[in-house]
Design brief:
By secondary structure, the protein is mostly helical. The protein has 40 helices and five strands. The longest helix is centred in the N-terminal third of the chain and has 20 residues.
């Protein structure tokens, strides 16, 4: 329920759905419904399910049991506010699970038997010759034939990737699915009415393709043929012929030969070698090996520059700008693939409604197309809409219960919806499906990090790193280092960053992380020295984007030393470089100058800059609230208008949620005396251990001090003492007179004496 901003009512929603509120809670919530369209819509959308659940004794008993189990934990977190979610998550998880599998109160279930429909499954072609094996002709034949048959509007075809997923679950190579002992399992899993299988043999130095179509239920052979293939390039002609023969043999498809059916080479690629690389890229992409997948797609377009779908996946995974090549050659793609290509193109230009329309068109025309469900779910997730994302991902999983990346996204979607238990259940299901892949462990590390379950996060990231140290360009290793720096393992974190500094592709990022580590420790002179050196090197090497962010970190550092003039110099350099790389970027970043101008006593200039930002904001077609409200909030904070400043920072963060904005919001709430709200904001910052916090330098440590103040003013002395000690420990090596450190030590002494 991303629309409602009131956490209290988000907690009450699921109790209301199950009719388990007290009378006072019910009255309070129903009054809220009169003012909140988002909550009202949520209640209406769950109405039929809720009615069934309210009368389900097992569900109510399970809610009661789990709520009792978590009551002690909730009480232990009562003051900090960090434990409320578990109770809500338990109820929400049961509601969601019941929606997905209303007959069982569990998430992971055995694969359902899919009802037999007008669906064809291509089981594969067994390779009986060295030449066929070396060229992967069996896989090429299966994928091309599946693609060709899918162009008919009269029948569904189980996708090649779905068949790969099925073979992976059974533990077979794809071409082994044709074995008779697996027929019943395959039919049950796919719901296919007809099965296609074959062999590729070598006879007198000529490849011979033997293929047959059979009835899935009776096993009756409906069509059998043998076709010669003198070279691998003739695979396309063989596939075209098989498609015609299969259509002719199925009564339902009578007259289908009159459908428009372009030659398969014209809607894929005429290069078997390029197509083989493309299939390898797809398999790598579904394991989340993005870099390796793009290498395969790049190799494919190097062989055939008109291969539209290879360009599409490069654009989707790494280089968005090459969608132009995919669009240019989209006539070399099927009708369905053209919709995907166009969809990605319009998505890049923020045409949201058109993107949704195109993906929905695919789903309507090809109901078994799990990728369309997945991409549309990702669209909604990226816009903070958890509910439609969860619905679409569950539909994708219903199509393919072993759709691994769907479980991955489902876990993140549940996390967004604050249904934490279901997030972990979803990712553990992914781990069951792919225990040897790093991605699910990396995702579980993310989830545990969000949930402040740090031991579990470190264990999960470590597992991912053990499987593939360079996974996702060392992303798991970097996140592991980030956690180490917050939990008394700063030397281990430094060792990882220094290891990455030796790698050209990660050197700049590693240096940035090393600088932020120094800044967090209060070693500001050393921070400045290192950043100046690295900026000079990166400017020499034309790494302007990397250098620009180090200028920004220098601005933060000089600001902490109360040197706003120097801070302004480096902020200007940051903005200049960003504007050179992305014309117009300066409009978004100049709001940061307002605070420096105010601190320097240049109030007139600060006010003039705010007015310029306001005028630009008012003329924008697509509003950018972030710089406008940030600038307003900064001036309000400088004038001591703390309550108003907090509201402005919240409005700014609603558009672009960056750590410094939330930090200023927390400080403003604290100064305004709104302690419960200040605690909520500052806790979110202090218990965050991601790049979101790391990239902000010393602010990531200061938050512990200010959260300590918020706790102390709330008379939560034990929690305050913990935060002050954390700040003092992390700043023990400070190389300047840090007034916050002096004050933190004094407060520690006072609280310890109580």
């Amino acid at each position: 329920m991303a629309g409602c901003k009131d956490q209290h009512f988000r907690q009450l929603l699921h109790l209301y759905e199950l009719d388990m509120m007290t009378e006072d809670q019910t009255a309070e919530f129903e009054q809220h419904l009169m003012d909140c369209d988002e909550c009202l819509e949520a209640v209406q959308s769950f109405e039929s399910v809720s009615e069934a659940l309210r009368h389900s004794a097992p569900v109510r008993e399970e809610v009661q049991r789990l709520s009792e189990d978590t009551s002690e934990e909730s009480r232990s977190h009562e003051k900090s506010g960090s434990g409320w979610w578990r109770y809500v998550a338990v109820i929400a998880a049961i509601v969601i699970i019941a929606v997905i599998r209303p007959w069982r109160l569990e998430f992971a279930v055995d694969d359902p038997v899919v009802a037999a429909e007008d669906r064809i499954a291509v089981l594969g072609f067994v390779e009986h010759s060295d030449q066929a094996s070396e060229a992967n002709l069996g896989r090429l034949m299966s994928s091309l034939l599946t693609t060709d048959l899918s162009q008919s509007s009269r029948v569904r075809v189980v996708s090649y990737l779905n068949m790969l997923s099925l073979s992976d679950r059974i533990g077979l190579e794809p071409d082994q699915l044709a074995a008779p002992e697996f027929r019943e399992e395959i039919v049950a899993a796919t719901g296919a009415r007809w099965l296609v299988q074959g062999e590729i043999l070598e006879v007198d130095s000529i490849e011979v393709v033997s293929a047959q179509l059979s009835d899935a239920e009776s096993g009756e052979v409906m069509m059998a043929t043998t076709l010669e293939m003198e070279s691998s390039e003739q695979i396309y002609a063989v596939v075209d012929s098989l498609t015609i023969l299969i259509k002719a043999a199925i009564p339902l498809l009578a007259g289908a030969e009159e459908e428009y059916d372009p030659q398969i080479a014209s809607v894929t690629t005429a290069s078997p070698e390029a197509y083989a690389l493309y299939l390898e890229g797809l398999e790598l992409a579904y394991k989340m090996y993005r870099t390796e997948a793009v290498e395969k797609f790049d190799a494919a377009v190097a062989l055939d520059s008109t291969f539209a779908m290879a360009w599409y996946h490069i654009a989707r995974l790494q280089r968005p700008q090459v969608i132009e090549q995919a669009m240019q050659h989209s006539e070399h793609a099927t009708e369905k693939e053209q919709l995907y290509i166009r969809g990605l193109a319009v998505q890049q230009t923020d045409q949201d409604s058109l993107y949704v329309q195109l993906m929905s068109q695919i789903i309507e025309s090809w109901p078994d197309e799990k990728d369309a469900h997945y991409y549309l779910a990702t669209h909604w997730y990226n816009r903070g809409q958890a509910r439609p994302a969860i619905d679409l991902l569950n539909q994708a999983i219903a199509i393919d219960p072993h759709f691994k990346v769907a479980y991955n996204s489902l876990a993140y979607a549940y996390q967004l919806a604050e249904v934490h238990d279901s997030a972990i259940i979803a990712i553990n299901r992914y781990i069951e499906l792919a225990p040897g892949e790093p991605n699910p462990y990396d995702t579980r590390g993310d989830l545990y990090t969000y949930q402040d379950r740090i031991e579990g996060a470190i264990e999960s990231y470590s597992h991912a790193v053990a499987i593939k140290r360079d996974f996702a360009r060392y992303a798991s290793l970097i996140k592991l280092a980030h956690l180490y720096r917050f939990f008394d393992r700063e030397e281990d974190a430094r060792d990882i960053y220094q290891e990455l500094e030796q790698l050209p592709e990660r050197r700049s990022a590693a240096r940035y992380y090393l600088a932020t580590l120094l800044a967090e420790q209060g070693r500001l002179e050393r921070t400045i020295e290192k950043l100046r050196l690295w900026i000079a090197v990166e400017m020499r090497d034309s790494l302007y984007s990397s250098a620009s962010y180090k200028h920004r970190l220098l601005a933060f550092t000089f600001s902490e030393l109360d040197m706003p003039d120097s801070a302004m110099v480096h902020l200007d350099r940051f903005m200049y470089l960003q504007n050179e790389l992305n014309p117009g970027a300066m409009q978004s970043y100049r709001c940061f100058k307002v605070g420096y101008l105010a601190r320097m006593g240049r109030q007139v200039e600060a006010e003039a800059l705010v007015e310029a930002i306001r005028q630009h904001h008012d003329t924008m077609t697509h509003r950018d609230d972030f710089p406008y409200y940030f600038a307003i909030g900064t001036m309000q904070f400088a004038r001591g208008e703390y309550a108003a400043a907090a509201e402005s920072f919240d409005s700014s963060a609603a558009y672009y949620d960056i750590y410094p904005t939330r930090f200023l919001q927390g400080r403003a709430l604290l100064e305004a005396g709104k302690l419960s709200e200040a605690v909520k904001v500052l806790e979110r910052l202090a218990f965050n251990y991601t790049d979101w916090r790391i990239s902000s330098g010393s602010i990531g440590t200061k938050v512990n001090y200010y959260l300590g103040l918020a706790y102390e003013r709330s008379n939560w002395n034990e929690q305050a003492l913990e935060q002050y000690r954390t700040y003092a420990t992390r700043r023990a090596a400070s190389d300047y007179d840090d007034p916050l450190l002096v004050d933190a030590k004094a407060r520690i002494a006072k609280l310890e004496a109580l």
